[in-house]
Write a structure and sequence with these properties.
217 residues; 0% strand; Endonuclease Iii, domain 2; Endonuclease III, domain 1; mainly alpha; 12 helices; 2 domains
């Protein structure tokens, strides 16, 4: 198969497996999604979903979050890891949203990436999952699978994102990035598959015998 043929096969197969992929982080709106995305750095979505109900019961808007101290936020989000830094970022971005954006989450990559704790990947998640803007956030699962499937060389997350955007139609990006994540968690895992064992790896590379070494995100 050519790279384009592999991409088309992957797209078809993943749609069969995950016809309606759900957003894994529980949220109420763009603001609560953004906070959840921030907390998910180096933390599982499951842990974030166990933590955010307590936080959002106290504050689910930027204005309400500013009524909490950084220490109060820190105590709640501690199970997510990197809590002091995340708590400070949540408080600081809430203040900036109120001061600069009228308490609303901005709908542009540039404005989102100016917020504390929100990098390009986090901004991409908010844009695609909150506002429906075609984006292709690349997490560790997508970065790993794109290499195993020879869709990119894995030189960097930015390169992986650029390569995938070239291979897949823009209107497919939003559901497809979720489908790849779910497949990476459930089938082509970091330890359960080495590029030769899962269904899609076997379909794409039936003669592959040597495990694939991948670069980390």
């Amino acid at each position: 198969m050519t790279r384009a043929e592999r991409a088309a096969h992957i797209d078809r197969r993943l749609e069969e497996l995950y016809p309606n992929p759900a957003i894994p982080l529980e949220h109420r709106d763009a603001y609560t999604l953004m906070v959840a995305v921030l907390l998910s750095a180096q933390c599982t979505d499951k842990r974030v979903n166990l933590t955010t109900p307590q936080l959002f019961a106290l504050a689910d808007t930027p204005e309400a979050m500013l009524n909490l101290s950084v220490d109060e936020i820190n105590r709640i989000v501690r199970p997510c890891g990197l809590a002091p830094r995340k708590a400070q970022a949540i408080h600081a971005l809430s203040a900036l949203l109120v001061a600069k954006h009228g308490g609303k989450v901005p709908r542009s990559f540039e404005a989102l990436e100016e917020l504390p704790g929100i990098g390009h990947k986090s901004a991409s998640v908010v844009m695609t999952q909150a506002f429906g803007v075609p984006s292709f956030p690349v997490d560790t699962h997508i970065h790993r699978l794109a290499q195993r499937w020879k869709l990119t060389n894995g030189r960097s997350v930015a390169q992986t994102e650029a390569d995938l955007k070239k291979l897949f139609p823009r209107e497919r990006w939003n559901p497809l990035h979720l489908r790849i994540i779910y497949y990476g968690r459930e089938h082509c895992t970091a330890w359960g598959c080495d590029g030769t064992k899962c269904l899609i790896c076997r379909e794409l590379f039936p003669n592959r015998k040597t495990p694939v070494k991948t670069r980390k995100a």
